[in-house]
Description:
Domain HNH nuclease: 176-225
GO molecular function, one term: endonuclease activity
Keywords: Endonuclease, Hydrolase, Nuclease
Protein name: Putative restriction endonuclease
Pfam families: HNH_2
Number of domains: 2
Helix content: 25-40%
Mean pLDDT: 92
Order of helices and strands: HEHEEEEEHEEEHHEEHEEHHH
Oligomer: single chain
Distance between the termini: 46 Å
Amino acid sequence: MERAHSHGELATQAELSKFTFEGIRVPLLDRQRGIRKPAILDAALSFRTTFTPPGQSPPYEDREGQDGLLRYKYRGDNPNHPENIALRRAYEHDLPLIWFVGVAPGVYLPRYPVWLVADERKELQFAVALDEDQKLIEPGTFLEPDRRRYVERLTKLRLHQPLFRARVLQAYGASCSVCQLRHSSLLEAAHIIPDGQPRGEPIVPNGLSLCKIHHATFDQGILGIRPDHVVEVRKDILAEVDGPMLRHGIQEMHGRLISLPRDRAARPDRDRLEVRYEQFRKAA
Length: 284
């Protein structure tokens, strides 16, 4: 886990399969199974959500319940499958688990620690708490709007935002789509349609990989991106005289084509770009 956090939080299947503990090889992830229980343990150590390419439906949907908590589906429809029993033991003993969420084929975003806080056999699923505060929620209860928003905000901070960033940066080869800067620590995932607005979902086709400067200029309407992927800089900004950052970092981006993901399904949605560009054009 320390290795994953020191390299932008992502970990590969190959790295996870080589993990050792006190000189013993203990793979953190199973190549063939979604739930990992090493032979030396009595309960599960980790579980994963596989990567689903943009535009495709996942084999399992891990959704939020009315209590705001996420659900993780059983392996198959048999509650007594060995993998489900391994997770159940972790739940019964309140053991922390690692959740590996697929970002790309063989690449995962680890979330640790997480806990299982309910075994919902009728629905063939477990309820998952992403932090200590979520563990205080009574699974299956209806939450008042303010409390529900708080629980959902924790999920957004602990899972949805990091996952959106990881998937967008992975799709764009960890470079800014405007200037091609490749320092991951200076890159962010920008929403084309802002979060909370209709069609503002945290999905790759609604995202752009941008460095911090170009993310800020995009959000503030200084820089726009046309539906044909051409960058425009606001006319009054083009007329300004300032230092080298303005000249080289912003003004010289005017008229450039942004770089795009190789996977066409991961490229920015044209309709979303058109809506955002129209907003930029009117404001300019």
